[in-house]
Every structure is written in structure tokens, then in C-alpha cells.
Amino acid sequence: MNMTIRFLRPFARCLVPYTFPRKRSNLYSTVVQRYMSSKVPSLSCPNKGSASPPEQLELDGWKATMKSSVQEDGVSEVLDKDEESLAATRELIEMWRLLGKEVPEHITEEELKTLMECPSKSAKKKYLRYLYCKKKKKKARQIKKEMKAEAREEAKRARLLETTGEQQRDFMFLRLWDRQMNIAMGWKGVQAMQFGQPLVFDMAYDNYMKQSELQNTVSQLLESEGWNRRNVDPFHIYFCNLKIDSAYHRELVRRYGEKWDKLLLTATEKSPVDLFPKDSIIYLTADSPNRMTTFKHDKIYIIGSLVDKNAQTGISLAKAKRLNLATECLPLDKYLQWEVGNKNLTLDQMIRILLCLKNTGSWEEALKFVPKRKHTGYLEVSEHSQELFMKLKKIKTLSSFQKGSLNVRTWKR
Amino acid sequence: MTFYLSGFRSFPKLWKSNPYFELGPATSSASFFLTVHCVIENQQRWFSVKPATPPNSKTLNLQVTKAKTHKKVNDSDKQVSSDPHYFAAGAAKKRSLISSNLQNLGHALPVRSTVQLPTKPLNSEEWDKLKEDFKGKASFEDFIISQMARSCSSVDVAKSLLAWVAAKNNGVVGYNLLVKYLYLCVFHKQTSEVIDVYEIMKAKYKSLESGGYTLLIRGLIHSDRWRETLLLLEDIKKVMVPSKKNYGDCIEGALLHQDVNMAWSLYQELIGHNLIPLLETLKAFFDYGKDINDDHYSNQLLDILLYLKNNQLYPGESFAHSIKTWFESIPGRQWKGEFTTIQKSGQCSNCGRTIESIHLSPEEYEFLKEKIMRDVIDGGDQYKKTTPQELKKFESFVNSCPPFDIVIDGLNVAKMFPKSRESQNLLRVVSQLAQQNLQLLVLGRKHMLRPSSQWRKDEMEQVKKQAHCFFADNISEDDPFLLYATLNSGNHCKFITKDLLRDHKACLPDARTQRLFFKWQQGHQLAIMKGFQKSKLTFQHILSYDTVVQTTGDSWHIPYDEDLVQRTSCEVPTKWLCLQRKTPAPC
């Protein structure tokens, strides 16, 4: 035993930071204990009979009560096969829930049908997890809403007590800000329709996407449109290749509701090649070999509205190649120290970057919309600092003491 | 590194020598324990198969040390002596070790602090006290039993926990606790406890979920009530396809209780679901086969071997031993088995027979060529990898040239030695091959023609003089062209690249075509050995034989995986089991 403890000591040192401070006192004993308990099976199994507990604990009593507890029984016997498997699935989900797996508490008929259509076991599990998260979020929102309502009530009551003394005050405007804003944005939108620079969303990708991806795409389109509307100088947005009654169209109409027909953008079944001269079109795709240097105000940029979770590379590049269009990609590598993640950005990030470029023309400003988690910083800055760092390092390595400390650092890593 | 672990784990004696591994079991997850358990179990079975050789442990120790020294050799970068072929098991790992000098694994194991797990049953006051000490997110009972399952506490301790919980909750124990308890019972092979839990579950719940069923099946196959596992299997089938483990357990149960027909019908069902059976399951059939002499049964075993052949599966080491033992146990036939290797010429070192050739049959060849053209190059959208114009140009170019002997992936070869100029590398390879009077084709991209610091114009001119060249667009992929040009030139044509071409293999639609592609690749891919820069060009040698289970009627050759060697999917085993019938001695 002595030997093992000595061996464990170095580990224990690096364990300490991960443990709760409260546990520090009995840490050694814990580790040793665990070590022993891990060896228990091989030791205690053979002589299990002789090593019965000395206090004679009542160990099997619970079994009798468990067995005697009656199972609730309320299912009719006559079920056809489909219903039977549906019922069995329901029970399976219930048992999984008891086991603490991530499955929803209640499941509707429709969701159950979708679940049964999932082709594989892992697809089923994924779908259940999705439902679970959805339900959880909904519940959290509900609770928040109730709390807010309560707080509002409280505030109202307090105000009622306060404002007993009525007094007339002079205002310049009525409180109609939201409507004013909408109207103003509408004006700008109309102007953009007439004189704005076109920006095309290419919708020809619906058969590359699954339903969930398509829904994500539509969400991103909605958000992009919203960002565009609020801008000082909006684009004139085109939804090209949008076939009436395609999955895309149906989803868009469903999400926008009656607003769809009043949107200040052009939705068309035509391809961008039919609408604009070919040589003024630039297809934006991350796979492009050409890097975008400046934003050109006389060009028509196309963004493929595609959420690609399958990582099928080169779809939009292939499309641009087929139509013989110029392609460009954002100069992400030039300006950013890329760290993780795909170079593909979401549609709303793209439109914000383009809007920013259009108004200011500065890449640093525009690339602020690239998610921070994907890069560690702007490159020019880091390049300078890197040079500085190298210089410093050179000086440092001259003195042996510093060298030693450097070594320590690398070793730690 | 993991093969070390398994090696050490299966020998508790060795645990003491290494503090690093001692912590392992307590921290690894429950599922991991099952595998460890299996390893140990296999080992035991292995012993029972070959009781005549006592120094098993010694051989295994030897193997461990062998693996160790092997690694050392790698580290010092001195391996040239043994030269496995490019697709040999473990070759990729070795390559990666050489290229990136192996770093020691980080030794900070993530160990979470826990409540002290009791080692003996506690009474309720003690449990109460322990609960007071515990403050965590999860519920105490849940947490503690998970920890127990993880560190495999004895059943009695867990039972006392359940008794305490039941006493608190009016005799009701939650399903999650029950399942974890069941896991412990199954792990410790306490069949009577398993049956008790089974009764409880049957009484309490109408149906269970897959995890519970799996554990029950695994626990019940050793008991007399093993037939009820089949009912449990039926219950699983109502909702989903049972896993291969479920089937494997049921089959094992049937074999344990001498119900051979049931085992075979379950096996058929398993195959019918397109599941690939666990090798343990197949091994169980062979192990059982030793004791019966039945032509029907042995034919079915031979069917299993053919299944291995068709699906390019390789048995593990212990499975190979089982196969050998079974063959040798057939009375009257006098099979003799040897563990051996195959010589470079494709002859078995033991019997001298020639192993099946790596070359595809003409039909297979045509089939593969068409599939590559349709799925890899075209792939439903010609613009993805190339353009139709380019494709047409390439096709007419290939057809206008004589069949090539060697197709070279120009960019891959050029970038092989980063220290020298890329065009220089290419020229050196091309001129060395051209001296042997071979028809060469160099595939590249257009940017190679543009003079730059890496690509000198005069050198490219010389390359063009010595070989046919085709330059694709800069945004086109060159590998599909490489594949097509090689396939189009015929069976004698080889190609040079270090790329393992896995992404192109993945474009192929089904497993059978992928296997064909892999077989063709093994026979036709030349990989340049490092270190050639100064000396002559040398290639990793090409296999002339196919590594697959095969028979000639009175002999079987079965490649198998060694326990201590890791093999990736693009490599093949190097060890073989050679079985042959002794010809009756001439009188």
C-alpha cells in the first residue's frame, strides 16, 4: 500500500485544482479508497458467502414490496399492429425518461409519427433530444413570462399609489415611435426598390437540404431581411429561383404571414442570369479561389441561401461554374486569425458584412460581424505584435536565465 | 497507446508496476468496463482453449515488451529493417509516429472528487449521514449508484443502498436505480439476483427500455430461464431493431444450453437485419462446434467463413485460435493449422501455396471503372469536380495516347520533400522512371506551368519531354483523373501517390464497390518511400496477393488481427492462419 500512495501523490497534486475545496481534507483517503473499491470485485466475489455483513442488515426486504406493488393496467387488448408499435414507443420513451435520458415528457401524435419515420436508432434519439430541448426552452420562457407579468403588476400597483396628484405635461410627440419607424423604413425600402443596389439570394438549393436545414435557412433569410430594412441605405433584395409552392416558398409564406405580399423586395422564379448582365454578377462562395478585395457598387452580389450541415463541399461553386459566373470569397484569412469553425457564414452575417462594406468600405469594421468564437483576433495587429514578440524573444534567449524560464513554460504546456 | 492499456488491464499483476493505470478503472465510464471485462473474459476463454501451454502469461508479457521495443525503434526513427507494405496493419500509425515525434500523453487524468464510496453494506443511519455529507447537483441516490457502477462495487453494498431507498419511499425503488443495480448484478454474474430483479421489473413495469432489456438478456442467458431472453428480444423488436449485442447474447445463451437450431435461426435473423455480427458471436459458434460432429453444423461454420470472406472481415487472434481448434477437432480429416505469414511473392510460408491474386476479374474491373467514372468523377454534377469541357478534353487525350504504365500525381509527388524545389522533385521522379522505358502520365494543375520560385520552366519542359502530361484547371480535382487514367490503361498500369484516396472511396455508393476499389488500390498504388532524396527511388512494395479469407477446398488461409496491433480501416492484417489437410502418407 505504501508504494501506491507514493505513486499517487504526484497525481493528487494535479487533482487538487479540480476538487472542491471542501473535499481537500479527505482527498488522499478518497483516492486510496477508490483504488481499493475498484479492486473489490476480484477480491470479494469468490468468498461472497462467508463475507456476509456482520450486522445482518435487512437487504432483501425491499424486493417483496416492489414485487407486490401492482402495476397500473388500463390498456385494451385489441390493438392493431400500427397502434401497438406506437403504444410500445410511447412506453419506451416513458422508460427512457425514468432513466434520466433526454426525452420529452409529453409527446403528441404527430411527433410520434415523425419519430416512427426516423430511419435509424440514432436518428430517433436525436429527434427525441431535439424535442426535449425544445420543450425545456418553452417551459423556461413560460416561467420567465409569468415572472415578468408579476413584476409588471407590482410596478403598476406602486405607480397607482404614487401618481395620485394628476398634472398636465407638455409633449411634442405622441408615443407612436414603432409605427413611425416602420413607415420610415417602408419609405427607405421603396427607394431601395427603385434605386438600390441589387443583392440576390439564390434559392435553387432546396433539394440539397433536409427539412430542418431548410427551416434554419428561412430563419436566416428573415433575419437578413430585417437587418437590411433597418439600414441607412438598404439593398434591393431579390429572391431568385424561388419556385411558387416549393418547400421554400411555403415556409417563407408561413413565417411571414400576410406580410409576405407587402415585403419591399423582389421574389421571382427567374434565375439571376436572366435578370442581370452576366459580367456584372459576382457569386459569393467560401470555396471560391478568388478573394474579394473591395466592395464594388456596380456589381450584383449573389448569396446562395443554403444551410449545409452535411458538409457537401462545392455545391455553390459548382453552380457558379455551370453558369460561368465570377466568384469571390470574403478575405477572412487575410484579416482574421482564424481559429475554429467553418468559413461559411450565416446569411444574416453575410448581409451585415456587405451592408457595412457598402456604407464604410472598411474591412475591419465589416468583419466585426464574424462570430468571435471563430477567430482569435485581427491579423494585422497580431502580425505587428508577433514581430515584436520575436524581437523580444531573441533578446531574451541571449540570457540563459530567461531561456530556462522559457523552457519551463513550454514544458508546462 | 491503447493497446498498451488493454495489455496491462488484462493482467492485474502488472497493474502494480504502473501507477498511471491504477487510477484508470475508477474513473472510466461504465461502458468501458464492459469492454475490459470482455477482454478478461476472452483471455480466460483463451486459456481454456489451450490448457496445454502454461506460459501464456509469459508470451503475452513478451508481446507487450516487444511492442514496447517496437515503439522505441520508431521513436529513434531507425525503422528500415522491417518493411511492411503500404497497407499493412499498423503502418499508418507508424507513419504518423515517425512524422510527428511521439509526444507523451498528458498525464493529468480528469478525476472528479467524490463522496467516499462505502466498501461494505451500510445501515440506514450511515446512509443518512453519507447523504448529509454529499452536496451536488444530482440526487444523492442517483449519483452514488452511478459511482458504484463505475467502480464496480460489490452487489451487497448496492443492495443496502436500495434497501435504504425503499425504506424511505414506502418500498418503491426508482427504475434508474434498479437498472444500475441490475448492471452490477450482471457484471458480477450474480444470476439469482438478476432473476430477482427480472421478477421485480416484470411485476412493476409493463415494458422496459432497450438498456434494461440488454442487461436482462445478458444476465439471464446463464440461468435456466434463458428461454425468456427470447421473449425479451421479441419485446425489443416491437419498437426497434435489436442490436447485434442483443442477438449475440441470445445466441450465446442458446449455445450454452445446447439449442443449436435456435442459435442458427437467430443468426439468420441477425444477418437478415443487415447487422454485422460481433466476432465474439461467430467465435461462439466455432467454440461450440468442437464438441459436435455434425456435417450440417460444420457446413454452417464454413458458411460463416465465407461470410467473412465476402464482407472482408478478419477474425481476432483468439477467434483465429478457435477456428484452428475446431478444424483440428474434425475427426478423420486430419486438419493441421499453423500461424504464419505470407511471403512477398504471395506464397504461404508454411505450405507454399500461392494466395489469391490481388487483381480484379475482368467483370469486376469493368464494373469498377464504370462506377468510378459515374460516381467519383461525374457524381451527378460534373461541375463539382471538373467541367464537362475539361472532362471531354481529358477523355480524348487519354484515348489518343498509348496505354500508360505509370500515372503520376504530380502535385503529390512534388510536395513530398518540402526541402527541395517542387518541380525538381517531380523531374527527378519522372526521369528515374523514364529511364526504365515506361510510358508515363503526369497529372497536374495549370498553375504548375506558370513559372515561380517553386516551379521552374526549364524543369517542367523536361518533364513534358519525358512523359505525357495533362494539366487540369486550378479549381478542378486531379485525383479522379488519376483514377480514371489508371483504370483506362488496363490492369498493368500503376499510379504513384501517397494519398490514401479515402475521400474518393467514400464517394462510391455501396460497401461492395468500396471493397473492390480498395482491392484494386492495394494492387496498383505505388507509394514512394521517404529518404529517397539522395539515393535511388524506392517504393513501398505492392501486394501481389489479396488479404482475405480464402479456400482451395483442402486448405484454408485466414488472415487475422493480432490483439496488440491497431489496424485502421485502410490497412490489412499481416498475420495468417494456414490450415491444410494432411495428405494420407504414401504407403
Topology (SSEs and partners):
The complex is a heterodimer of chains A (413) and B (587).
Chain A: H1 2-15, H2 27-44, H3 61-68, H4 81-98, H5 109-117, H6 121-162, H7 177-195, E1 198-202, H8 211-230, E2 236-240, H9 247-256, E3 266-267, H10 272-275, E4 281-284, E5 300-304, H11 315-323, E6 326-328, H12 332-335, E7 336-338, H13 347-359, H14 363-366, E8 375-378, H15 379-398, H16 400-412
Parallel strand pairs in A: 1-2, 1-5, 2-3, 4-5, 4-6
Antiparallel strand pairs in A: 7-8
Helix pairs in contact in A: 1-2, 8-9, 8-13
Chain B: H1 2-9, H2 12-15, H3 19-22, H4 24-27, H5 30-49, H6 56-75, H7 91-99, H8 124-133, H9 140-151, H10 155-168, H11 175-187, H12 191-204, H13 210-220, H14 227-239, H15 244-256, H16 260-272, H17 279-289, H18 295-310, H19 317-329, E1 335-341, H20 362-378, H21 382-385, H22 388-400, E2 406-409, H23 410-414, H24 422-434, E3 440-445, H25 457-466, E4 468-472, H26 479-489, E5 494-496, H27 502-507, H28 511-524, E6 525-526, E7 550-551, E8 555-560, E9 575-581
Parallel strand pairs in B: 2-3, 2-5, 3-4, 5-6
Antiparallel strand pairs in B: 1-9, 7-8, 8-9
Helix pairs in contact in B: 5-19, 9-11, 10-11, 11-12, 11-13, 13-14, 13-15, 14-15, 15-16, 15-17, 17-18, 17-19, 20-26, 20-28, 24-25
| Helical run tally of chain A | 16
CA radius of gyration of chain B is 29 Å
Q: Into which percentage range does the β-strand content of chain B fall?
A: 5-15%
Helix content of chain A: 40-55%
Largest sheet of chain A: 6 strands, parallel
Q: Any idea what the shape of chain A is?
A: globular
Cross-sheet strand order for the largest sheet of chain A: 3-2-1-5-4-6
Largest sheet of chain B: 5 strands, parallel
Number of helices of chain B: 28
Low-confidence stretches of chain A: 1-55, 71-77, 397-413
Greatest interface: A-B, 66 and 69 residues
Q: Indicate the structural class of chain A.
A: alpha/beta
Number of strands of chain A: 8
Using the CA coordinates, give the radius of gyration of chain A: 32 Å
The strand line-up of the biggest sheet of chain B is 4-3-2-5-6
Chain-averaged pLDDT of chain A: 79
